[in-house]
Specification:
With about 350 residues, the protein is α/β, with parallel strands linked by helices. Helices cover about 45% and strands about 15% of the residues. It has helices spanning about 25-35, 45-50, 50-65, 75-85, 100-110, 120-130, 155-165, 185-190, 220-230, 230-235, 240-255, 255-275, 295-310, 340-355, and strands at about 1-5, 5, 10, 70, 90-95, 115, 140-145, 170, 200-205, 215, 290-295, 310, 315, 325-330. The two termini are about 25 Å apart. The protein binds pyridoxal-5'-phosphate (PLP).
């Protein structure tokens, strides 16, 4: 990428499959713009639903093996729109401590009582479920693939607990969509839990290289959201080009599995390189490879030195991550070449030495 007039290696993009620059995705966006214009002109329920929106919702439902899907303007909007329609005042939410801010805001809007359980800790969650008074309506919230740590939720155990304690589960698979599972359908596919997790959300803005988000689930549930979710109703529909690009990206996820193969090969290459240099990584199982530093100032200094050596990967600090866990969140994509990764590893080593991390 170009940064301040200089070519640097980008190691912080969520465009994991390189689809935002795929010729067919770009072509789909151009054609939709030429045909329908740049803007959708209104909210979805007024006159903003154009053929690319309907086509995208069909493609998403088919891709996910769900009855129906609903596209939101962004992942943030999906989460604050869906959660208050699942749960409300007097009800109970248990959310993983590392859940994204949009999930937390959705919980706040719902007015349900809200507790966090320790990250990926099912024993803690079970203790909380057991202590629950009466049979209050309960929602368990987790990310599928965690955005800042690169690990996956213990989804099978979470679903088991939900079934045993009569709770619902809401999964945000923003980062898993397109890359996790044998065919890229996401973290739920990775665990084979499609039938036990009736609905979930994900975004179009990471591996799908576009913008916006979706919820998939039973027809009745999607119809309910369409009529109730305020962040769906009271906002302009995404531009037709964006919808068409996302549809094209789904086709490519299915048609070009070699992109995922390249992604995972690159992921292993960078992971091994970082670990061999002696960096402390989170227990990641994905192309998200966070090097834990701890102190925010030291993380920033490391990022500055990385940039000086030609690698763009900014420090992630509180409040995006908990205090004392500042980090460089490296991400790798299918598009990186081995030469680029070698060059990047060299830069990481130099920056690590210069900042006293190695
Ligand atoms: C990126 C992200 C979102 C927000 O999606 P946007 O489309 O960027 O608003 C929500 N949840 C998680 C876990 C994310 O990583």
């Amino acid at each position: 990428m170009n940064h301040a007039g200089r070519t640097v290696i980008l190691l912080s993009s969520n465009d994991y499959l390189g689809l935002s620059t795929h010729p067919q995705v770009i072509q789909a966006a151009i054609e939709a713009t030429e045909r329908y214009g740049t803007g959708s002109g209104a909210s979805r329920l007024v006159s903003g639903t154009l053929p690319p929106h309907a086509a995208l919702e069909n493609a998403l439902a088919k891709f996910k093996g769900a009855e129906a899907s609903l596209v939101f303007g962004a992942g943030y909007l999906a989460n604050i729109g869906v959660i208050p329609n699942l749960i409300g005042q007097g009800d109970l939410i248990f959310a993983d401590r590392l859940c994204h801010a949009s999930l937390i805001d959705g919980c706040r809007l719902s007015q349900a009582d809200f507790r966090v359980f320790r990250h990926a800790d099912c024993a803690h969650l079970e203790a909380l479920l057991r202590r629950r008074a009466g049979n209050r309506r309960t929602l368990i919230i987790t990310e599928g693939l965690f955005s800042m740590d690169g690990d996956v939720a213990p989804l099978a155990e979470l679903v088991g607990l939900a079934e045993r304690y009569d709770a619902m589960v809401y999964v945000d698979d923003a980062h898993g969509t397109g890359i996790m599972g044998a065919t890229g359908r996401g973290t739920i596919e990775r665990f084979g839990l499609e039938r036990r997790i009736p609905f979930h959300m994900g975004t179009l803005s990471k591996a799908l290289g576009s913008y916006g988000a979706y919820v998939v689930g039973p027809n009745e549930f999607v119809q309910y959201l369409l009529n109730k979710a305020r962040s769906f109703i009271f906002t302009t529909a995404i531009p037709p080009a964006i919808a068409a690009a996302a549809s094209a990206a789904i086709t490519i996820v299915e048609r070009e599995p070699d992109r995922r193969d390249r992604l995972w090969a690159n992921r292993q290459y960078l992971f091994d390189g970082l670990r061999n240099q002696g960096f402390r990584l989170t227990p990641t199982v994905s192309p998200i490879l966070p090097v834990l530093i701890g102190d925010a100032a030291q993380a920033s200094a490391f990022a500055d030195r990385l940039l000086a050596h030609g690698v763009y990967a900014p420090a992630i600090r509180p409040p995006t991550v908990p205090d004392g866990t500042s980090r460089i969140r490296f991400t790798v994509t299918a598009e990186h070449t081995t030469d680029q990764l070698d060059e990047a590893l060299q830069a990481v080593m130099l920056a690590g030495r210069e900042t006293g991390l190695l």
